[in-house]
Write a sequence for this structure.
């Protein structure tokens, strides 16, 4: 390999590095949970967080929402959850989730799992829904 070919190969490898890191950050598979809608509540069985009915739990699940964007339910602790509409507050793009953050593929905004802006250009936090739990279910309050 001559010098020019080596430099081209290195350049392509460096250009692909951000894409490879975003793929690795989101290694947890995206799982759409089953839920029930009753009036202004979305009811998600807590068993939806279990992987293969075992003791290992998912960090988050997604559900289809009536707002045109998914809602991501992030498990912060055993009985604490955050439910965020995955719509960027900057230009309305659908967010990606992985690596403990929400990221916007359009302009690079980043949000923590509680919906707070970490990195602009977005300057408003995500829409977060109130959640409550029982021993069996998670309730997302839409109003």
């Amino acid at each position: 390999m001559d010098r020019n070919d080596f430099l081209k190969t290195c350049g392509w490898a460096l250009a692909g590095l951000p894409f490879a890191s975003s793929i690795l950050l989101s290694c947890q598979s995206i799982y759409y949970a089953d839920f029930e809608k009753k009036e202004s509540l979305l009811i998600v069985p807590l068993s939806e967080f279990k992987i293969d009915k075992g003791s290992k739990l998912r960090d988050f699940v997604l559900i289809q929402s009536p707002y045109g964007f998914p809602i991501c339910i992030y498990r912060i602790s055993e009985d604490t959850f955050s439910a965020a509409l995955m719509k960027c507050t900057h230009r309305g793009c659908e967010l990606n989730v992985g690596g403990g953050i929400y990221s916007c593929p359009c302009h690079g905004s980043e949000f923590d799992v509680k919906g707070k802006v970490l990195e602009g250009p977005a300057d408003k936090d995500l829409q977060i829904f109130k959640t409550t739990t029982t021993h069996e279910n998670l309730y997302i309050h839409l109003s």
User: Anything to note?
Assistant: The domain at 28-141 is CATH 2.102.10.10 (Rieske Iron-sulfur Protein). The first strand starts at residue 36 and ends at 38. Residues 11 and 101 are 28 Å apart (CA to CA). The chain has one domain: 28-141.
